[in-house]
Amino acid sequence: xxxxxxxxxxxxxxxxxxxxxxxxxxxxxxxxxxxxxxxxxxxxxxxxxxxxxxxxxxxxxxxxxxxxxxxxxxxxxxxxxxx
Length: 83
Description:
Layout: H1 2-5, E1 11-13, E2 19-23, H2 31-49, H3 53-59, H4 65-76
Antiparallel strand pairs: 1-2
């Protein structure tokens, strides 16, 4: 799911329930937010460990599995490795 849907760090909500630009402290995360973060971490870990050193250089700064996956997809588009 993390690769398909992406993940964003939970944000503090204002009094009307709208997201602000302030990241929510980890100790205030809900179980669902924690589970989504864990899913992203596991997917990112799998991607990092499934690529060679050259591909790792492309994705090593990614904080979401979806972003890393998109970079790898674009890097392999049209190559014989995916045909």
